[in-house]
Amino acid sequence: xxxxxxxxxxxEEEIETPNxxxxxxxxxxxxxxxEKICDECYDDSFRGTCLRCCEVVDSVxxxxxxxxxxxxxxxSPGSGEDLSAGYYRVLEMPFYCSSMLGGGWFYxxxxxxxxxxxxxxxxxAHESYSNAGPICKDCEEKILSSxxxxxxxxxxxxxxxxx
Length: 163
Ligand SMILES: [Zn+2]
Ligand SMILES: [Zn+2]
Prior knowledge:
Bound molecules: zinc ion
Distance between the termini: 41 Å
Oligomer: single chain
């Protein structure tokens, strides 16, 4: 059996535990088609690296979509007010306008300030080639929980136990 993408032969492990992405709506590749993909194509097509934690995660975890957080790695121009480096929540799309001449600016009103960059964020900023990027859901949770008061933290731990 060969990879449906690159046509290289699949390893036994790739056949027995197929690489499937489930974004909650669709599965890729659709199990009904019988398609299977090798680890390499899977990483290339469906996975990306979170700059903040350096983990390779499913691309759906790295979607800079409405409600998700993004890292703004450096002070950047915005429409209206300029934005300072930090984590922002995406309120609406699009939140960025790229100029054909290179460079671009953020729509200030499409982004909500969450907090300044923590140490991991500063490291990510150092590694990044662009001035902003998505972060994975794990990082998002860590950043949000860093904002909670002690009481709220206890509450969310209790909720976790109930589930
Ligand atoms: Zn392949
Ligand atoms: Zn991460």
